[in-house]
Specification:
Layout (H helix, E strand, L loop, with lengths): L1 H4 L4 E10 L5 E6 L7 E2 L2 E3 L6 H13 L4 E6 L4 E4 L15 E11 L15 E7 L4 H4 L5 H18 L1
Parallel strand pairs: 1-7
Antiparallel strand pairs: 1-4, 2-3, 2-8, 5-7, 6-7
Amino acid sequence: MKDNLKNLPLRSGVGIVVLNQENKVFVARRIDNPKNYWQMPQGGVDAGEDFITAAYRELEEETSIKKVELVKELDGFLTYDLPPHLLGIIWKGKYRGQEQKWFLMKYLGSDSEINIKTKKPEFLEWKWVDLGSITKLVVDFKLDVYKKIQQKVNKILIDRS
């Protein structure tokens, strides 16, 4: 059974690196993961939806954040596979992982406008962290994705300064 699951397709997704005015990164702790893992906003792309539209929708659905400026669409796609114990469980068993398009956005609002207690809440709490610490907070199977994001965003920030 598990061998068949490895042949499942990747889910099309988006991720958003949200920076505040101090270039700290928004991360939140998921409701469905009891351990101390944090992630950036991310989610699936709906049928007929383009990546940037999905990114804005997911960001608002998960955090209530609307006041952002698109800094850059990160080059390429980043992928991860679910670990064996989650295969066949997450996403109703339709996918083995995600292929994501990531976006870097600057948050223009105030912290008081951020609300993770949404219609379908995904997070217990949120915070701003240094870009260098995102790889210390993320669940193991997304670590490579977060390392690549960290490198890409760091380069963008250096190029912009």
